[in-house]
Automatic annotation (TrEMBL):
GO terms for molecular function: ATP binding; protein serine/threonine kinase activity. Residues 89-100 have a biased composition (Acidic residues). This is Protein kinase domain-containing protein. The keyword tRNA processing does not apply. Pfam families: Pkinase. Residues 112-448 form the Protein kinase domain. Residues 65-102 are annotated as: Disordered. The keyword ATP-binding applies. It comes from the Eukaryota. GO terms for cellular component: nucleus. InterPro entries: Kinase-like_dom_sf (IPR011009), Prot_kinase_dom (IPR000719), Tyr_kinase_AS (IPR008266). The lineage of its organism: Eukaryota, Sar, Stramenopiles, Ochrophyta, Bacillariophyta. Keywords: ATP-binding, Kinase, Nucleotide-binding, Serine/threonine-protein kinase, Transferase. Residues 72-88 have a biased composition (Low complexity).
Length: 466
C-alpha cells in the first residue's frame, strides 16, 4: 500500500491526482423521542434491608387522574421534537410512587437511583446512579438494587433552549447521533448469552468503541442520557499518571481509537472533537464519548438503515494473535461517494483541532479531521506533551512539523521514538489533508503492524505494560 497521499480523500482520481470535490451541508440525524420519566421517592431493597430513598429516576406513564388535574401541562412537546413531560416542576422533582402508572412489561422495568454528581457539564451535570429493578417479593419494597452502576447526563431544558444555538456543542444532536449509531450496530452483534442489563450494553459498545445510550429520558425540567459508568476514567488521566506510554501501549490504545473512528465512518459520522479527554476507559477497552459537535456526513446516496445493514457483515478480528473488537466490514467494496462539508464553525479543543477547522474558510472532509485528531492523540501518548498550542502558522512548532520537519524535530529532541513511530506521526499530521494518511493506510502502516500487548499485560488503573 502507498503512503504518499490520502487514498480516501473525496475527489481522488488516482495516483495522487485530485479534482475539486463538491461540498454540501451536513445531513440531519433522525429525530429521537425520549421516554417520559419522573424523579421519585420510593422504597427499595438494598443491602438486605428496606429503605425509603429519594432521587430515583423511573420511566413512567402519567395516570389518568393526574393528567386530568394537570390538564395540557401533562404533555409538553418542545420545538425540538422532544417530549419533555411526566413530572411536575412544582414539587422539587419528587412525587409519590403511587401517583405513577409504570411501564407494562415487568421484565424490562428498571430505574436509576442517583448517588452523587460526578462532574459539571456544559448543559448540566453528570450523575452516578445505581440501576434498580422491579421487586415483587411482597415485602413493601418496590425496587431492589443491583450491582450495576451507570452515568446519567442531566441536561436542563431551559439551558438547552437558551444556549443551543449559541454554543458549538448541541445536546439534541448528540443524543440523536448516539441513538442513530446504536440503532445501526445493535442488530449486528450476536446476543446469545444471558447477561445483566449494563453488562450486555457494555459488550456491544466495546465492540464498536463508541459510547451509546442505555436510555433516553425526559421530564419537564431535564433531558437525561443514561450511559454505562466507565470505571477507568479518561484515557487522558491514565496518560497523565504515566507521563507517556511505551510504543506497545500506545499501539494498544491507538487500535481502539481507530476502531471507534472506523465505526463512526461506517455510520457516516464525523466526531469533530476527538481527544484523549473524550475517551473513557472501561476494563481493557476505550469508548469514544461526547458527540455534541458531530456531523452527519453528506454522501451521494444515503441508504436506509436496513439497506446499510444488509451490506455489512460482523467479523471477530485479532491483531498479531491478540484480541481486537468485533468490527463490521462491508460485504462488498463499493461505497457511496462522500462529499466535503461546508464550513461549520471553529470548534473542538485547540491542540486537537485540524487546520481546516481552525481556519473555517474552506470545505473540509469529515474523515480527515477525525484522523488528524487521532494523530495528535498518538503524538501525546508517545511523547507526553502536545505537538503545538494551536493549528496555525503563528505557532512555530505547528508551522515546521506540518511542513515535513516533524521527524527531524523529534530526533533532535532525543525522545527515543522508533523511526516507524515518527514516520507515522508525520504522515498523519501534514498540513494538506490530501497528503495525510487515511484510516485504512494508518492501519496498514508498519508501526501499527508491530506487536500489541494483550489486555492481561496492561496493568489495571496504572496503564503500564509489563
Amino acid at each position: 500500500m502507498q503512503f504518499e497521499y490520502n487514498s480516501d480523500y473525496p475527489g481522488l482520481i488516482g495516483q495522487g491526482q485530485f479534482i475539486g470535490a463538491e461540498a454540501r451541508d451536513p445531513l440531519e440525524f433522525p429525530a429521537v423521542q425520549p421516554l417520559p420519566c419522573a424523579r421519585i421517592t420510593t422504597r427499595i431493597y438494598h443491602r438486605e434491608r428496606i429503605a425509603t430513598v429519594e432521587n430515583v429516576i423511573v420511566r413512567t406513564v402519567v395516570n389518568a387522574s393526574r393528567r386530568k388535574r394537570r390538564g395540557s401541562q401533562s404533555s409538553n412537546s418542545s420545538s425540538d421534537g422532544f417530549m419533555s413531560s411526566s413530572s411536575s416542576s412544582e414539587d422539587d422533582d419528587s412525587m409519590a410512587d403511587d401517583d405513577i402508572s409504570m411501564t407494562a412489561d415487568p421484565r424490562e422495568e428498571r430505574a436509576y437511583w442517583v448517588q452523587r454528581t460526578v462532574r459539571e457539564a456544559i448543559y448540566g451535570r453528570v450523575l452516578l446512579a445505581i440501576v434498580l429493578r422491579r421487586r415483587y417479593a411482597g415485602d413493601n419494597a418496590d425496587w431492589e438494587s443491583t450491582n450495576e452502576r451507570c452515568a446519567i447526563k442531566e441536561m436542563a431544558w431551559q439551558h438547552i433552549r437558551r444556549e443551543r444555538d449559541r454554543l458549538a456543542e448541541d445536546p439534541i444532536k448528540e443524543v440523536a447521533a448516539m441513538q442513530y449509531i446504536k440503532d445501526f450496530y445493535e442488530r449486528s452483534i450476536a446476543d446469545d448469552q444471558p447477561q445483566h442489563f449494563v453488562t450486555k450494553s457494555f459488550r456491544s459498545m466495546l465492540a464498536t468503541n463508541i459510547m451509546t445510550p442505555l436510555d433516553l429520558l425526559s421530564d419537564d425540567r431535564f433531558l437525561y442520557s443514561v450511559m454505562p459508568f466507565c470505571e477507568g476514567g479518561e484515557l487522558f488521566e491514565r496518560l497523565d499518571l504515566n507521563e507517556k506510554f511505551s510504543e506497545p501501549e500506545a499501539r494498544y490504545w491507538m487500535l481502539q481509537v481507530l476502531n471507534g473512528i472506523a465505526n463512526l465512518q461506517r455510520t457516516g459520522v464525523c466526531h469533530r472533537d476527538m481527544s484523549l479527554e473524550n475517551l473513557l476507559v472501561h476494563e481493557s477497552g476505550a469508548l469514544i464519548i461526547d458527540l455534541g459537535m458531530c456531523l452527519h456526513i453528506p454522501t451521494q446516496e444515503t441508504q436506509s438503515l436496513s439497506v446499510q445493514m444488509q451490506n455489512m457483515t460482523m467479523n471477530a478480528a485479532t491483531v498479531n494473535g491478540t484480541f481486537y473488537n468485533s468490527i463490521l466490514k462491508p460485504a462488498h467494496s463499493s461505497k457511496p461517494m462522500r462529499y466535503l462539508i461546508r464550513p461549520q464553525g471553529t470548534c473542538g479543543k485547540w491542540i486537537y483541532m485540524s487546520p481546516e477547522i481552525y481556519k473555517n474558510q474552506e470545505p473540509f472532509d469529515g474523515h480527515a479531521v477525525d484522523m488528524w485528531a487521532a494523530g495528535v492523540i498518538l503524538f501525546l501518548m508517545l511523547t507526553g506533551f502536545p505537538p503545538w498550542e494551536r493549528a496555525c502558522m503563528t505557532d512555530e512548532r505547528f508551522k515546521y512539523m506540518t511542513a515535513g520537519y516533524l521527524v527531524q524535530m523529534l530526533t533532535e529532541w532525543n525522545l527515543g521514538l522508533s523511526s516507524d513511530a515518527m514516520d507515522l506521526l508525520q504522515r498523519m499530521l501534514f498540513l494538506d489533508p490530501k497528503d495525510r494518511l487515511s484510516l485504512e493506510q494508518v492501519l496498514a502502516h508498519p508501526w501499527m503492524l508491530q506487536p500489541v500487548p494483550t489486555p492481561q499485560q496492561m496493568i489495571g488503573g496504572g496503564g503500564g505494560f509489563i
